[in-house]
Design a protein that fits this description.
alpha/beta; Archaeosine Trna-guanine Transglycosylase, Chain: A, domain 4; Transcription Regulator spoIIAA; Rossmann fold; seven-stranded mixed β-sheet; six-stranded mixed β-sheet; 11 helices
């Protein structure tokens, strides 16, 4: 794959020199080189070609994918000693990512993350498996010129029967105009007309890999869903921002007295109904009373008090950019206060955040402080971060965190 985006047979390798501060950051393992850190560049770079970064002593520092239009000008593939990024190198890089997942899942879980972007050495690229369908999500346009070879590499194992392309919104126009690629396009395998059904811990779910959020399902909350199942027996459950009802299904199987899905989206609630239908053969699921409520969670919770025994708060990101961080922390605190108010005595609150701009320390602190201000005694049952198949190796990649509080009777 090395030569895919070379601008011409006789063109010199794209060479960059960076600021002293950037040298230190790259040597520390950070996978991004920003445009403002580049001090010298030997020629104009082409989208997706390999850019070699040198230090002040003209020694090799790193190599990565170049994007002339992105503030993240280079997404690093390798740093340290020089290496040849040939087909064998790329196969080894893929094998390394897949090896990290070996032994994590049994046949009762057939959906998981195979490649987690920068944290697996594939910057700006995510690969999720749903049964034999793979969903490839690109967050960087630098992969577009390399897509054909990347797709072929990913689909080499015979078990990979279908590959679906998902594109971040910020690169969809470029992908269409220059590469004739579209979000939801099937790159390999048979066409797909309906969601893919998969197993997670023995429960059946559907994933809309063509049009759904992320790659079709929120695989990253698997461990928290499993924990909720262990707490659910005999409890009335509210799953706020419920999306496709996954937390509710786990709670129902765990013996919940009743479950309520709360979401502003009718599309999400319809998906939750379908997921419950997929699991009607499980006695505990079939017997559990289940309500679907379409409403704004903030507004609905204002009018709710002392009604539930266990409440899940898993909102979408409340801080899309750094400038929204302070407001998001206040919103998380307000949401936690409303959740605590909605709980019966002895209730349990599981609060989660997927906002990368809000740190785990800030989020946990906001929830704990809110609980303390409520005047209700509580204990922290657990705090969690990323699951093993979603492991993050750099600060900006750390987005998911959850805290579970038990309110004392």
């Amino acid at each position: 794959m090395e030569t895919t985006s070379t601008p011409g047979k006789n063109a010199p390798r794209l060479r960059l020199r960076v600021s002293a501060a950037a040298e230190t950051i790259l040597r520390g393992g950070h996978p991004w080189l920003f445009a403002e850190s580049i001090r010298e560049q030997n020629r104009a770079g082409k989208l997706g070609e390999l850019a070699v970064v040198y230090d002040r002593k003209d020694e090799f520092l790193a190599v990565g994918l170049f994007d002339p239009q992105s503030p993240i000008r280079v997404r690093l593939l390798h740093a340290g000693k020089p290496q040849t990024l040939d087909a064998a190198w790329w196969r080894a890089r893929l094998a390394q990512a897949l090896a990290k997942r070996d032994g994590l899942f049994d046949p009762q879980t057939t959906a998981f993350r195979c490649i987690n972007g920068e944290s697996d050495g594939w910057p700006g690229l995510v690969l999720d498996r749903y049964e034999t369908t793979l969903a490839l999500k690109l967050y960087s346009a630098a992969w577009l010129p390399r897509l054909e070879e990347t797709a072929s590499l990913i689909c080499e194992p015979a078990a990979n029967k279908r590959l679906v392309l998902r594109l971040s919104r910020n690169i969809q126009a470029l992908a269409a105009a220059q590469f004739k690629l579209a979000d939801g396009q099937v790159l390999r395998g048979a066409p797909l007309a309906e969601p893919v059904v998969f197993l997670e811990t023995g429960l059946r779910f559907e994933a809309d890999v063509l049009r759904g959020q992320k790659t079709g399902f929120f695989l990253d909350q698997r461990e928290n869903r499993r924990f909720v199942e262990t707490l659910a027996r005999g409890r009335t459950i509210l799953n706020a921002f419920s999306f496709s009802g996954a937390f509710s299904l786990y709670a129902a199987r765990g013996g919940a007295k009743s479950v309520t899905d709360l979401d502003i989206s009718s599309h999400a609630l319809a998906a939750a109904r379908r997921n419950f239908s997929l699991n009607e053969s499980i006695p505990a699921v079939a017997q559990c009373p289940h309500e679907f409520t379409q409403a704004d969670a903030f507004e609905w919770l204002v009018a709710t008090a002392n009604k539930f025994d266990l409440l899940v708060l898993d909102p979408p990101s409340l801080a899309k950019r750094e400038s929204e961080r302070a407001g998001a922390i206040r919103a998380y605190a307000r949401l936690a206060a409303l959740g605590i108010r909605a709980l019966n005595r002895g209730g349990i609150l599981l609060a989660a955040s997927c906002s990368a701009h809000v740190s785990a320390e800030e989020f946990f602190g906001a929830v704990r402080e809110t609980a303390a201000k409520s005047g209700r005694r509580f204990s922290v049952l657990r705090t969690t971060g990323h699951a093993a198949d979603h492991a993050a190796t750099f600060k900006e990649g750390e987005y998911l965190k959850a805290v579970c509080l038990a309110l004392e009777p």
